[in-house]
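so im writing up the methods section and need the FAD/FMN-containing dehydrogenase record in one place, dumping it here so i stop losing it
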Amino acid sequence: MTTILPPDETLSTVVGPVFRATDEGYTEEVMGFNVAYMPSPSLVVGATCDTDVAAAVRYATELGLPVAVQSTGHGLLSDLNGAVLVSTRRMTGCTVDPVARTARVQAGVRWREVIDAAAPYGLAPLNGSSSTVGVVGYTTGGGLGPMARRHGFAADHVLSATVVTGDGEIRTVDAERDPDLFWAVRGGKGTVGIVTEIEFELVEQPRFYGGGIFFPGEAAPELLHAWREWAPTLPEDTTTSVALLALPPDPQLPPPLQGRFVTHLRFTHLGSADEGAELIAPMRAVAEPIMDLVDEMPYAAVDAVHMDPQSPMPCWDRGTTLSSLPAEAVEEILAEAGPDSSSPLVLVELRLMGGAIARAPRVPNAVAGRDAAFSLYCLGVPAGPDAAVQVPARCSSLVESLAPWAAGGLVNFYGQAGPARLGSLWSDADRARLLDTKRRYDPAGVFRTNVVIG
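--- predicted struct ---
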């Protein structure tokens, strides 16, 4: 049930729109990418600047209400009932400094804007698999993208951040100013504050050799076993993943893929096309592809590697990281989600980690999962009463079947998790530091939606 809130002078300084549940535009403002949830916050502040965000936090604190933040809604994990929602989609400032090779972006910016702004200078950001995802939410959760084995997590390259903390203060932090807060917001997601702006390094990468190869679903056993042996032999210039996909009969998909169960090999090589072709040759030889889309590409075409959905959809997801991927683990994945499993899941993905992912950054941060060898992520569409039960159950069953090789997880790919399970991603020392930082910068505990560390 939505809380009825009184008017308050604290919001009188807000420049952007303020929505209550009965206001026109409320429904459109709260909807996110994950439409499995119907957000029902008591109040929405359409923030345009830091001071709008700070006013929203102070208002929530005065009333003892939780605060949530949303740009694109890719990370939505609950209905946000009774919360004060800060919508940052209007905060769209994005500047690139080609000399310093840096970008500065506000909280509503998506990766596509940064990619396009950097491309004319031969530069690229450490974006994720989809350019429709918001920069700040992705980065504060670590950020594992198609260049990760060469450059590490996106959070490793953040130079400074502007943060509105739980006391309603606006703070600019970096390695020298508020080092604990700077450490926590790079990997701790939104547990200690709302990041309204970040500055980060860009890399010189005008092009790459890569894309995806779609194989028939029935070839999944041969492909997954071949991939688990091949992937660890790759150089750091190469990042790869493989996914089992149950594709819908969507007319926007290429006709050979519509309505099919397929195995999708994803590949990004930062070196020459000749090197890349030689590296991927063993996988091309495993089975006859349905479509081979791997080629030399401008970096701006990086969405072609994963071909993630661009439109909102209902999602229920879970993830884990693995210390190793023996044949037995692959057999568990095939039993739970392979072509003969009758699985309701639409995606099961394995990503190769290692390389720069495993190395500590110059300025330490709170990113979890750094020392894993692989990550596993699964997702289903909980549409309909049967799927609403079957999808979470099958996601959980798959992750639990891999428990002998589990080694933590990645915040952005962990899915639904209670505070204790989420807190287990960090070492005892790092979890204690996160919680101590939260107590100091969010004394009232207003940031307690979606990502809660216990």
